[in-house]
Amino acid sequence: MTVTVPARRRGGRATGTGLLMAAPALLLFGLFGLVPLVGVAALSLARWDGLGSVGWAGLANWSSVLTDGATWQALGLTVKVMAVSWLVQTPIALALGVFQAPRGRVRSLFAVLFFLPLLLSAVAVGLTWQALLDPSFGIGATPGLHWLAKPLLGSPELALYTVVFVIAWQFVPFHALLYQAGIRQIPTALYEAAALDGAGPVARFRHITLPQLKYTMVTSSTLMLVGSLTYFDLIFVLSGGTGGPGTATRVLPLAMYITGFQAHDMGRASAVATLLVVFGLGLSLLTTRLSGFTRMDSRQEGM
Amino acid sequence: MRGTPVNGNLKGPRIRRVVASAVALAAAMGLASCGTSGPSGSSADSSAKGLTMWALNDQTILKESVDAYNKDHPDEKITLRLFANDDYKQKLRVAFGAGQAPDIFFSWGGGALNDYVKAGKVDALTAAEANTDRFTPSVMQSATFDSKVYGVPANGLAPVVLYYNKKVLADAGVEPPKTYDDLLAAVKKLKGKGVTPLSLAANSKWPTLMYLEYLLDRQGGPQVFSKIASGDAAMWKDASVTKANQYLQDLSKAGAFGDNASSVGYDQGASTALLYTGKAAMEVMGTWEYANIAKAAPDFLKKGDLGYTALPSLSGGAGDPKSIVGNPSNFLSLNSSTKHRSAALTYLKDYVLDGSQVDAYLAAGSVPPVKDLESKLAAVKSSSDKAWLTFVYNLVEKAPGFQLSWDQALPSDQADPLLTNTDKSFLRQISPADFGVNMSKAAS
Amino acid sequence: MSTTVTKVHDPRTGTGRDRATGRPAAPSRPGPARRRTAVARVRRALTGGATLLWAAIVVVPVYWLVVTSLRSRADFTADSPLALPGHPTLDSYRTVLDGDFTTYLLNSVVVTAGTVVLTVTVALMAAFAIVRGAGSRLSRVSFRLYLLGLAIPLQAVIIPVYLLIIRMRLYDSLPAIVLPSAAFALPITVMILVSFLRDVPRSLFEAMVVDGAGDWRMLFSLAAPLARPALMTVAVYDGLQVWNGFLFPLILTQSGDKAVLPLALTLYRGQFGIDVPATMAAVVLSTLPMLALFILARRQLVAGLTAGFSK
Fold first, then answer.
1. CATH for A58-301, among 1.10.1650.10, 3.10.150.10, 1.10.3720.10, 2.60.120.10?
2. B118: CB partners within 8 A, 6+ apart
3. Positions in chain B whose pLDDT score sits under 50
4. pTM of the model
5. CB pairs < 8 Å spanning A and C
6. How far is B130 from chain C (nearest CA, A)?
7. Is A223 in the B-facing interface, judged by CB distances under 8 Å?
8. Among A39, A78, B218, C53, which lies 20 to 30 A Cα-Cα from B121?
């Protein structure tokens, strides 16, 4: 789990060929990654309805976005999806990871099974769950399962949690995979030594497995947190593109999309998008800072 | 979806340098995206050979007019693309923004069409060019801006009516409601029978809006919304708007829409399916639904179980109970950057709602907005169709006002706040008074 | 899907990295052996139970998806949703395949293959340049740019990307999906390849330099073959992301004949309406290629998704 800036070598310098080799990627990434990054900030100062010409708006978009309760609600929902997703997914993924860690036939069969949702596109997952949860014709029509015949995606109180559940359905297996890999890399010698010391399974789990999984947990958590910024596709499909019912599932990316591509206020949408960029960069920075307390950091300083 | 590494190596000053270099690079590459003019390419999306035309999925009769045109004009054919209702408007807008819009496009007239007119994207049509004198004048209002006509009606009159399942109502001992109070009483009885009183595709939001449009028209009269549509944002805060929302919420509170309405989407066809499968008793929907029912459940029609009536009156309301809301018609308009203007005009003038089209619409249970229709109506063979067509025709003929759907009448930037607040009012997440407050804020 | 950057393989140490954080487990009081096994059993039962429960949660929707696609329209409303179809039929699949499915499939294949080839090629060159030029300004700056790139949420820059694509006159074309998809796949791909190439012993490169080989020859005859496992991993990973990508196709294309599968699925929903079996058949069909990939390249796929976290 380490990315390091290439070691500094005295006298290292780019050759002409090196530049040539690096150029296509830089050009591609610069054009579609970096230019838009600056472009979105620039557009947040512009007025553009998607039809006419782009005009100067000054800070009008910003003052309207920042004073709009809907923006803060969308931001709040984004944080809520993030937090609830983390709370739901982490314990389940950890439990599944612990179970899957020992090698064996049955366990690898489960591993294959758990992988299925990861193969589906967010649209496929969204359409399937939307039809499955339809109160009239979905799973709730099964005898004995009538208690599921509820507007799980239609009720403002339940919709967000349903969305979080569907997200978990798709991504818990992935995080379980991470934990499984993490557990497999714990040196068995540690357990043997602890067993010799008379440590019970609970003690071993608490004092060996959990501390040893610290990095895995940081990785998995970061991916969940940053990933939840990008659950656009799934929520888009599940809510029929509206972030509804009402605005119950209108997270920040969806609010941006609706402002830009449905209400055709590209300038305002760009201001929302800029918030998203700031939020994303801030989150990455924060998690790296937090994980910076780990030994990984000191390891790299030695490089 | 992409990820971000956990990285022990990112340090404050470094990330600042990274950002600085990113900015420098972007600046060096020239910020193509912040020029002062909009997207330059604005030519219509058409190959050298033919034209493109966009419409909705369910416009099968319109498609026949395209086929007829194509048969006569093999050298300059029209390629018709059909879309689902819920995302059509947005796709059209994006296509215009990207300079890849069709030569001929389908719309609801009103404020959304006016957006394109104001942006210079649509050509006005003279009476001679498109033979517009053959259409019902009141319908043409929806596509007329500054006394110029920007579209040709392309299908039937589409007021909103109340459909009901006769068998379900009879089983519950309920008469089709004539007043709002009748409706509330019917709701109570039908709920007791375990059926959903009013089927509603609330997930699509615009079906819910139909209730508000109708309730406001009954409560406050047509002038309230006319003022709103002409830009008077404060009018949203009128007492009648609050009252209309109150009535909607009362219905919802009484359980009129069942428990699951918010999960039902229109494009899935489930709301009407609930009606003809007898799981719901009534549905408020546009007249186009008659054709959809005929297609999806021909037996239901044949048995004569489908009933329909005008929307109930509202005691104490200022509006005329004969007034109607809905879509006067849909329109076909001409992209101003088309390279096929004369071919497009030929199609609009000679093929749209020509004699055979009018017959086809009538046969499908839809009343086209053309003048002098009585004789053709009288000649319709199927008695159930004739009854329906006559009902629609008389409804429109006798209506003192025909209010265009709000989401079509208003400029497109207000459509989303409108639908969202309608949904919230329906879900009782906001108070009846909040609706007007929120809307006047969004409109100003 | 998200992933993390890590070493795919570490030739220096052969096997896994040493992840020991040090502190051995604090010794706890020895307890009776019987209690210990009981606790272990409880723990196994708990994790096993959780696994079984989750397996059911995963399987039921997939099962429903498949059986629903095999029902007729009439049976869909009549049958119990989880029962086996009384009269299984392939009609829904026929409905889907009679339409434009092959066009969508072909578009998806072209977009995915194009993106993967473009991304992997330019990323390999860039990674090689970064590793070979280690310490140089170019190497440092470009590396950090990709690092930054990992933190940019794709949704956040879609409006400028849309504007750029329009300006480039690429709107509503397959390259309109390929170029930004490749650009956003680059950071992670470069990172993985860099961490892999960095571990190739310098002596190998130096031996080639002595032989008079230039950078290009080193790239093609040394770096590329050596990096094959890593290339496979990133190719499979990037492929899955692009195949399932939705936002770029949604915003940057509009025509039915340019639609890729995920976008086509939303078109199907509008087109089929209440014909849920047909929509579900389309969902199944759109997933089959990835299922085939999973069966053929499971190791790479797992490695790609966890980006080498589990070897």
1. 1.10.3720.10
2. none
3. 1-47
4. 0.83
5. 395
6. 28
7. yes
8. A39
